[in-house]
Queue: 2 jobs
Job 1
Amino acid sequence: MKYFEKLLIANRGEIAIRVMRACRELDIETVAIYSDADKNALHVKYADEVFYVGEAHPSKSYLNQERIIEVAKKSGAEAVHPGYGFLAENYRFAKLCLDEGVTFIGPKWKTIQAMGSKIGSKQMMKDAGVPVLPGTDSGIKSIEDAKKVAAGIGYPVIVKASAGGGGIGMQIVNDEKTLEDAITGSMRIAQSAFGDATVFIEKYLVKPRHIEFQVLADEHGNAVHLFDRECSIQRRHQKLIEEAPSPIMTQDLRCRMAGSALKVAEASGYSNAGSVEFLYSEGNYYFMEMNTRLQVEHTITEFVTGVDLVKQQIAIAAGESLSFDQCDLSIRGHAIECRINAEDPRKNFAADPGKIVRYRSPGGPGIRVDSGIHMGYTIPANYDSMIAKLCAWDSTREEVIRRMRRALSEYIILGIKTTLPLHYAIMNNQQFVEGNTHTHFLQEEHILSTLDRYTKDEETRMQTLAGSFEQGKKVAAISAAVNTYLQQRRG
Ligand code: ADP
């Protein structure tokens, strides 16, 4: 069954390649777009057709909606996959695609718009009977009102941008004295990052877990969930490590949370792939938001369910009904994803783009590496610092941790600083091994203070491995030359 002849991927890096891989398996031709910064990027080499879309700055290229639609039409692509980030949750772009007769691979623009407001979606879910955290029901109108609400729910509270994403604009407030500054600061950041200064308050949970559910819904009213992912290990409210399933999940909790996730999908008229995010604390869970797109961490759900989420997205967008129902789905084993970022964790995760002088990715049983990098590649400074996803699967959590340690010990990335030593430290942390994670894990376990040792060990290990690799290459080159010489003599 051919869903589309040609598909444009409005993204870059590992996710563009991930989508192209699905297309190749489905016999769909691919169209890549690239900016000035990405002339030599791997996603450009992987595609069947490529189009230049503009300067390095995202607003001039990967966010340039009109130009992208123009390329779709020129190339004859019938559909656009937005990946994650950039235009993936931009309802205006989804609407533009519809108006221009190009299929947007994602939910309907109205759903994206409704779920793009944290305040609006929280209210919608509260009305649908899904638990939400107490807080303001609408944007903060006056400091006096905010003080009243905060006093009512009790400190600490968190100030959040309604249109927010990527943890941007969040401020934790421990007492009334700092509330006003937090609100004005958050409004300023929200205005400049999202063009919308609306902020709201909700109860701040001190050490919650971030647990989310993957859902898939078609355009004929069928919806399933593909179980849970634990995403509690974070820096700056952004995920670093995800695992599926959550180590604390019980049958009863899963049943309740999955029921709520499906209610969220139903209440929002959802179609395509999406994730329903919850915070969990002391036996209770609360709806936080819905991400109306493919998530970075979709890989681990694919590992434990065996479902290819990108192929499902494409089939649903082509109008197909889901080919399975809830009873066909089950969890097999355990999977972990480590996000490899070009960042220096010892310098407050400062981005460290640059040239990769040595590169070798791990492999073997149960390992998947999704990346857009290679040896000699220069990571541009213009985009997100996540450069690869190292994912591992095994039959149990204990075994997958061992497998991840093994895979990390095979990974060589030299020339830039990465989060590899951090992952090594976490995989060897006793609390992590026991599944005791929460959103303040890095601070509470003093992970960063152990990094000097791990970073040194990691660098030595990579240098040694790279050295023996080079040595191996030299030996192979010498024996090839000897063989050629012998052949010539024989000839
Ligand atoms: P964004 O959309 O900016 O990524 P989210 O609402 O998804 O923001 O939240 C990201 C992270 O911020 C959560 O995983 C959690 O660590 C933290 N967070 C958000 N709201 C709360 C809250 N009410 N209490 C505690 N932590 C929170």
Job 2
Amino acid sequence: MAKLKILEFPDPRLRKKAVPVEKVDAALGTLIDDMFETMYAAPGIGLAATQVDVHRRFLVADVSSEKNEPWVLINPVILERDGVEVSEEGCLSVPGYYESVERAEQVRVRFQNRDGEEVEASFDGLLAVCIQHEIDHLDGKLFVDYLSEAKRQRIRKRLLKDRKHRVEDRVAAV
Ligand code: ZN
């Protein structure tokens, strides 16, 4: 297994729309394992392929505190949305920022699991929020898109500045 590099906002690659996965094969399985390793190490509760610069429609998630309830959703499609929930969201691609976002409280999703079988399942609570957030990534959308333009620009500037400092620190340390 290998840890993958997570793209960070405002990287334009986060805006690419992912294409459907055509074949659930061993190579995809390896990528899924690497994404779980990357997500758990971050640490995070969800990771979409887009975030590791793979523009195909699949995501991994695990919102359990024991980190033993992994979900793999390949080619996910939201069939139904129910209720409204506002919760604080963060994102591994927007490190250090947490903002309130409104989502459906419950979603019914059709997807393929890692064996390539077609599954329909309902999700609620944190897992429902997480899955909606990750499916947005596959469409090139980020949680900061739900915020005001001014707030999004502020986060963008701050992250670019932080990254520049990080690069300068690294140069200084050599
Ligand atoms: Zn995210």
